Amino acid sequence: MTASAEKPHLSREHLLALLRQMIRIRRFEDKCAELYTREEIRGFLHLYDGEEAVAVGVIPVLEQRDRIVATYREHGHALVRGVPMKAVLAEMYGKQDGCSRGRGGSMHLFDRATNFYGGNAIVGGGLPMAIGLALADRMRGDDIVTACFFGEGAVAEGEFHESMNLAALWGLPVLFVCENNRYAMGTALALSESETDIQRKAACYQIASEAVDGMDVIAVEAATRRAVHVVRETRKPHFLECRTYRLRAHSMFDAQLYRDKAEVEAWRHKEPIVRFQGWLEANHLVHPDDLACIESEVAAEIAEAVSFSEAGTWEPVEQLTRFTHAEAEG
Amino acid sequence: MIQPATTEITYRDAMREAIRDAMRRDDRVFLMGEDVGHYGGCYGVSKGLLAEFGAERIRDTPLSESGFTGAGIGAAMAGMRPIVELMTVNFSLLALDQILNTAATLRHMSGNQFGVPLVIRMATGAGRQLAAQHSHSLEGWYAHIPGIKVLAPATVEDARGMLWTALQDPDPVLIFENVMLYNMTGTVAADAVPVDIARAAVRRAGRDISLITYGGSLWKTLEAAAVLAGENIHAEVIDLRSLRPLDDATIMASIARTRRAVIVDEGWRSGSLSAEIGMRIVEQAFWELDAPIGRVCSAEVPIPYARHLENAAIPQVPGIVATAKAVLGRA
Amino acid sequence: MAEFRMPSLGADMEAGTLVEWLVKPGDRVKRGDIVAVVETQKGAIEIEIFEAGKIEQILVGLNTNVPVGTPLARIQTEREEAAGTVATAPSPAAPVALSAAPPSILAPVAPPSPPAPPPAAVARRRVSPAARRLAGAQGIDLSIVTASGPAGAIIYADVERRLGGAVADAEKKRAPGLDLDAMRTAIAAAMARSKREIPHYYLEHQVDVTVSEQWLTQKNAVRPPDERLLIGALMVRSVALAARRFPAFNGFYRDGKFEPSRAVHVGVAIAIRGGGLAAPALHDADQIQLDELMTRMRDLVQRTRAGRIRSSEISDPTITVTSLGERGVETLYGIIYPPQVAILGFGKVVRRPWVIDGAIGPRSIVTMTLSADHRVSDGHAGALFLAEIGMLLQEPDKL
């Protein structure tokens, strides 16, 4: 069995792995929020709570050689892709042990080893980059898929439309993953788009598209398997709209005046971990021991990441201006 | 003794030869931009290249400056050596996000994991009665940005030689081609070699005053120097060639000889590259100076259409001569 | 603790450049010792000290141009030494270097220190940064550099030109010891000021010096040439003795009032080859005998022409005598050297038909003039003063 097979292989092991990844992200984000309030983490901090099924459903389907372009809400993507948790957290601490040497922070996690092309803090800014990555692969004939994540807010940007057009026009192997969490910061989709059915926008660029329940990790994985298969086979782009919901505020400093508490509460019943775990329990696919084991392993990993980050070192100020340009080797 | 063979070609042809040469030497190189293929380039630079290299490598783009500039960034990150043509500097503003927020930041922001070996070419400058939206000289703005290099080839030789060197750079390089230069002819060696992109050049030696300029203003400045010579004022003319980084050493060495400086910059005066150069002279060569530094810049208006007004808005030979004489106390 | 300061050597001196120290810390000095050489518009001038004691600290380095009154050195006085006072003088104020050329002020030559703000009333002279740096490095006094830059600024090439001429200048200074250009500037300033401020009146009187000439011939018959008395000595001596009796012509007019001088220091105008002029003092000319006076005059002329005048000789004259000598004219009217109030002019001695005891005979006649300050004296007093000089000049035995 390979990851490129069209249908998910729902072994107990695989199902537990999906659950484990989602819990891992959730607990990590909770720790980040705590560390933020303790001022260990600064800058903007955008948490992924509620949207875990998207990253966990999409990223494991990709091959090691494939590329990922993410947004500023990208901790989960980095963790699922295999960027070590301690390197991610140390980055948020601003330590040189972080995955971007402390020069990027929460919004700019990069990892060359896993072809992780970063969090991008300009909404829509990653789309043209994904176009270019895929263009290079196309020109060389490489069997590589570029997965480009963006929120539904990016859909209003010119760069979104330019990129859709270029991808379709030039036939580029890009999997566009729209994480539609219904709010561009605090502006509801209906307040910013004349057409709220996002996937139809891709369709009008002649890009095959579908919408999927982004709170259902199995559904996301299944859709992704189909989409990636098509991209590899046709070398053409595919558009996947994952309809999801952000449970936490946009960033740490957000009073959430734009939505009702009741709305958030309603979504809490549909959120991906509760839902997936409940389904696994109902079908006797997960045992309390499994959950305890997952929780303790995740807690240990987070504790290790925290101590690694705390023990990390600051880059000497003398190196401030390094890496604005390439340096001679040696 | 065998004289090396030289050919007389235009700046436009030299740029085209540079692209052709780079594409022949390195199959990672491709040209992408609006009307670079079937049209032959807005200024005719890429005319004929589509037939030679095909539509994959001479890639016409939709009018999506941000999109295809970003695509150039992505392709460069993935190992290609793209040349993005932005047609004109005014259109580059639509790609400014990609240039500034992505190309210039990526290496630093990623902790040195990803570089962007991208070359972006664009036409710049006034003088063709193209009015307020097509006559900018914004290269000084770009020279403000850490993480990119900014070149201004003023001679046919540099038009021919700078591109290859820029393509070898592991980081983004912007090349500004002044629209008034495309028809200018010059001589290059038949076996033209790449040129350095780090040093300014002394285009005319002199002992009385340093005239510091670049790009399209170089030729006006050289003409002004000839006028001054008729009045027994020997001006040294420096062609910056690279606007970022600036070759401080060549500038300061010239100031040490002449003790006076006039900066000729087609950008608007306020916050201009000329201001940066003037300040560097004050910082590094204050004790060499015999007179306040002079500047000849564009008037602070959108560039007007009418010919006489456009001429009045941008640096011209009489203004350069007058400013030089004023600095020398000979006005 | 006493301070040895840059002396004022004349009304027109605002600053001087210290070019030589003749003492070092620890040296003992006594009143009147020459301790330093200062370059002024009038040339290098040896500076005396008026305190006795021990040089404690040199405060101003060589080739530094400082204003009058700037402390140059600290001296532990004998009285302090006797009392065992420990040298705990306040730290010396940094000398303000400035141009000697009035009225311009220059910033200091040492680059790192910020320029001292110029006195409000004095316009800052423009010197380009490059010129300033070169002058500082080469020890060039910017006040003697001719400006050719924009807005009258001194530029690099100006200093270079000055540097190029430095060797020649050095020669010139060693031989005549004088910067004649600067001296001319100083003379111009002083004479212009005199004509502007002093209401001169002029008197003329002719004296028969036949007897005095005969007396001199007799005296000199037995002397070697370099010990012979000249009539100039008689003139100076006559003026000195008369001045003692007529104090309104001997002293200084300063700050709106006249200060008569008890001492009579006669300034002797001495022409310098090349166009210079100085009038250093023969100190206490009323107190010394003719032979001594003659010796001192010879010394003074020699030293003046060598450019080694002492500071006190420049600043001390209380009255001046000018004579154009044997090759001169019959009559000359001097311009008073401020702040003095009188100058005596002697024409050359001429043979004239003269009436003596009712008969005409050939006599040696000299025309004396007095230029005097009308704010201090009137013509009547001037006439009596001039007559007194004339009488004295005819009685050499009494001189």
What does this entry look like structurally?
The complex is a heterotrimer of chains A (330), B (331) and C (399). By secondary structure, chain A is α/β, with parallel strands linked by helices. Chain A has one domain: Thiamin diphosphate (ThDP)-binding fold, Pyr/PP domains (Rossmann fold, 3-Layer(aba) Sandwich), CATH 3.40.50. In chain A, 45% of the residues lie in helices and 10% in strands. Chain A has twelve helices and seven strands. Chain A has a five-stranded parallel sheet with strand order 1-2-3-7-6, sandwiched between helices. Chain A has a two-stranded antiparallel sheet with strand order 4-5. In chain A, α1 (12-37) runs antiparallel to α11 and α4 crosses α12 (288-311). The relative contact order of chain A is 0.17. In chain B, α9 (217-229) links the parallel β10 (209-213) and β11 (235-239). Chain B starts with 5 loop residues before the first strand and ends with a helix. Chain C folds into three domains: 2-106, Beta Barrel (OB fold (Dihydrolipoamide Acetyltransferase, E2P)); 120-173, E3-binding domain (Dihydrolipoamide Transferase); 188-398, Chloramphenicol acetyltransferase-like domain (Chloramphenicol Acetyltransferase, 2-Layer Sandwich), CATH 3.30.559.10. Helices cover 29% and strands 26% of the residues of chain C. In chain C, strands 9, 12, 15, 17, 18, 19 and 20 form a seven-stranded mixed sheet that branches. The relative contact order of chain C is 0.12. Classes of the chains: A alpha/beta (330), B alpha/beta (331), C alpha+beta (399). Chains in contact: A-B, B-C. The interface between A and B is large, with 44 and 42 residues.
